[in-house]
Amino acid sequence: MSPRTPPAAPGCDFSVKPVLTGEKALLRPFSEDDVPVMAEILADPEVLRLTGSPVTDFDPERLHAWYATRSEQDDRLDLGVVDRASGELVGEAVLMEWDEPNRSCTFRILLGPRGRDRGLGTDATRLIVGYAFERLRMHRVALWVFAFNPRARRAYENAGFVAEGVERETLLHEGEWIDAVRMSVLSREWAAHRGRPAGPRTLPAD
């Protein structure tokens, strides 16, 4: 091992699927019962636009196979976002592209219509990013956000993410080329941003 390559963080294991509880959102592992709800969320036009996904019909069998096996994955963490006020599943938050030697990963989040404009995205982002740094001992968490989504960019900035650069004209949307902004937050920046409060409450998965 190169002396400049940090060792993997002790206990950094995506095979553990926690339940994280915030003020407005609760993050939990997926179950097979979530497939119909996620199918509806993934077909939402705003979700398709903001994620740069093509308009398509999602195959029920593929969706079932995907969400029924999320808890079996040890190289990524997929959690459902639940509105604590209603108990309803409204989206997902994911840590993926795990670079174990360099203690980094990529983050993404998507919310359906019933999860937007009420602070659930901000709360869910802080929960899962806090888990990445405070429990998994990550050094860096990164993401991409399209230029036509300034609301999401502001939410990420409020969680401590910093813009690093622009991938120019990476998405063709309705005849227009759209840039994507690369953002990240480092462990020391997260610590300063959070002021070192107690991390998210972690409950055992069912």
UniProtKB/TrEMBL annotation:
Q: Where is the signal peptide?
A: none
**Residue ranges of domain N-acetyltransferase in the record:** 25-188
Q: List the molecular function annotations (GO) for this entry.
A: acyltransferase activity, transferring groups other than amino-acyl groups
Return the Pfam families for the record: Acetyltransf_3
UniProt name for this protein: Acetyltransferase
Task: List the source organism.
Answer: Streptomyces fructofermentans
